[in-house]
Write a structure and sequence with these properties.
Keywords: Cell membrane, Membrane, Transmembrane, Transmembrane helix, Transport. Belongs to the 4-toluene sulfonate uptake permease (TSUP) (TC 2.A.102) family. By secondary structure, the chain is mostly helical. The chain contains 10 helices and no strands. The longest helix is centred in the last third of the chain and has 27 residues.
Amino acid sequence: MNPADYLILAVAVCAATALQGSIGFGAGLVAAPVIALVAPELLPALVVMLACLVTLLVTVRERAHLDLKGAGWALAGRIPGSVLGAWLAVAMSTAALSWLVAGCVLAGVGSAFLGWRPVPNRTNLVAAGGLSGVMGTATAIGGAPMALVWQGQPPARLRGTMSAFFLVGSVVSVSLLAAAGAVTSGTVAAFLWLAPVVLVGFLVSRWLNRFLDARRLRLVALIASAGGAVLLIIRLVFGG
């Protein structure tokens, strides 16, 4: 990658981290389509590795508001889902994985706009955790299922519980991807270079939490995410 590519990635990761720190999900929605455009060979491992860092930061910050029981049931589905996701990440071509990324983004955005509100009971949490595991490990976009189940929670509780869930899930996903050979030296180098950018985005999220309306921020993020997915589809269709 050239310096311009690294700059684009830095901006995307900073924005993605700020979003994740503000509403509890969305880092993959913002970052994955951009990475798929600039450096598709880094997917999905890079986004999942960065997610480990940002979710750790948010979990520590919101530790007093965690719903450990709910997160536990979701993790019961996440782990087997992650195994399937790791297999898909290795078995699929870069182009196919890019299509899957775009499709998952648009599905997540569409479901959010449709306003579906499932009850966060045991069955739905396990099912959403499983789907999140598949999507999160294979495409680095696993937030939508959990956001649908946990929507309506107080902001701090939503951020803390989702971050704790994604922290454990992301560690599992990275381990499985590494075992499958999907974590390369290039991925590790990119992660180390972008880790300070995550810290900047986390600090920005603290400022956003004080001054911005979470609903407006979420709307802007969803629109931006959909735009990124559309750009990715255009590139895939025209081979640019």
